[in-house]
Amino acid sequence: MDIATLMGIVIGVSFLIMGILINGTLGTYYDMASIFIVLGGTLASTLISFPLPKFFQTMRSVRHIFAGKEMNPKEAIDMIIDLANIARKEGLLALEEAAFKLDDEFTKKGILLIVDGTDPELVRNILDTELSFMEERHSNGQSLFETMGAFSPAFGMIGTLIGLINLLKNLEDPSTVGPNMAVALITTFYGAVMANLFFLPMARKLKVRSREEIHLKEVLVEGILSIQAGENPRIIEEKLKAFLSPKMRAKLSEEKEAESEEEAYAGAR
Question: Phi/psi of residue 86, each to 5°?
Fold first, then answer.
């Protein structure tokens, strides 16, 4: 579970509720007509904007918003170094068995390509093509939530117009002024909250996760090609570290030193 996403939603909803309760009641902000207008209108417009199979396919991307821990750069580099050591000691053909033990399908595909003796340029082209299609798939999920984030405030305004029309139509009856004005204002409130607390932040989170995954895959591509070129595992490690930020490089170095000290201590015992 991604704690930041959960915390953001809980904090956002909590502060909204507290803000309402300071000078009012939650019941004042409940209006079924406004919910129908905003939710129904947003869903209908989104369905019109996307083919139905793609709509359901991209809705599954919601799990990435709340996804837990995924492979990080350190794990990716360690995996590549382990494979490089196998290739250096036993040859590229020995990587076939190791490839089938990998959980990451992208790395498995790249390793099997080099085991089959595929030309390095062709390996890069195949993996880059897969990255391009992966990025496109990710953008579909992002565009879905961006679309919902654009439509929900618009339907909030439509609800406001409906409320004002009903208000003006029945202006001679004072008892209708309050309910119609509530629809006019609460619908805009619902649309703004849904767009800015849920849909647009979700689209942004998917975009951030997509960039992180693409960057990680680029590290793996360079590592796979370096293994195919027969480079020294230490050289490969330094090359892959170039993809990381200075802070992450320093953290990796500290972890390596700690691991070396633990191994030395265990050997001494």
Answer: -65, -45
Taking the mean position of all CA atoms in its chain, how far away is CA 54?
Answer: 17
Q: Distance between CA 73 and CA 71 in Å, rounded?
A: 7
Task: Determine the average pLDDT of the residues in 239-260.
Answer: 74
pLDDT computed for residue 13 by the predictor: 92
Query: Considering the domain boundaries, does residue 52 fall inside one?
Result: yes
Q: How many domains does the chain have?
A: 1
Q: How many residues does the chain have?
A: 269
The answer to the question of residue 7 being in a domain is: no
CA distances from 26 to 19, 202, 257 (A): 10, 25, 56
Q: Is residue 119 part of a domain?
A: yes
The domain of 249 spans 33-168+178-257
* pLDDT at residue 148 in the model: 93
Residue 74 has pLDDT above 90, yes or no: no
pTM: 0.78
Reply yes or no on whether the pLDDT at 208 is more than 80: yes
In a domain, residue 207? The reply is yes
